[in-house]
Amino acid sequence: MDAKLSLTLELTLRLGEADARAISEVSGENTVITAWNNRLVALTRMGLLTERKVGKTKFYSPAVKGMSYGK
After folding, report:
1. What whole-number distance in Å separates Cα of residue 45 and Cα of residue 18?
2. How would you write the pLDDT of the chain (71 residues) with one tens digit per residue?
3. 3-state DSSP call for residue 5?
4. Which domain of life is it from (predicted)?
């Protein structure tokens, strides 16, 4: 897994559930929200995150309850 996907997964796990905007805000990086969204979709396709839609916003959370990263 590349560094950007690893960071996205780590931030999502830290927040518990997040959308691309929340990940962007906590990352402190100057990265467009679309890039974060693409990473979240990639992690979902890998089976690491699940997705739920509320209106037009997609929220992502760990696929396995209690999942941690790098600990």
Report:
1. 16
2. 899 999 999 999 999 999 999 999 999 999 999 999 999 999 999 999 999 999 999 999 998 876 555 55
3. helix
4. Bacteria
Pairwise CA distance, residues 42 & 9, whole Å: 10
String of b and e for 9-32 (b: at least 16 CB within 10 Å)? bebbbebeebbbebbbeeeeeebe
Torsion of CA 57, 66, 49, 1, to 10 degrees: 130
Which residues fall within 8 angstroms of residue 58, CB to CB, at 6 or more apart? 19, 20, 37, 40, 51, 52
* Calpha distance 24→6 (Å, rounded): 14
CATH fold for the domain made of 3-62:
Arc Repressor Mutant, subunit A (1.10.10)
pTM of the model: 0.88
